[in-house]
Amino acid sequence: MITSKLNLNHELYIKECNVPKIQDEQLLIKVLSCAICGSDLKITKFGNTRITEERTIGHEIAGEIVSIGARVKGFEIGEKISIGADLPCHECSFCNNGFVNLCSKNLAIGYQFDGGFSQYMVVNKFVLQDGPVCKFCNVDPDLACLAEPLACAINGVDKAMQCFNLGKPKNSLIFGGGPMGLLIAEYLNYRKVFDITIIEPSKDREFFIKENTQFNTLPKISSENKKFDSIFTACPVFETHELSLKLVSSSGVINLFGGLPSVSEKLNLSSNEIHYKEIVLMGTHGSTPFFHEKALKLIETYEIDLRYLITHKFSLNELELAFETARSGKGQKIIINPNE
Question: Quick one: 2-146+306-337 is in which CATH superfamily?
Answer without folding.
Answer: Medium-chain alcohol dehydrogenases, catalytic domain (3.90.180.10)
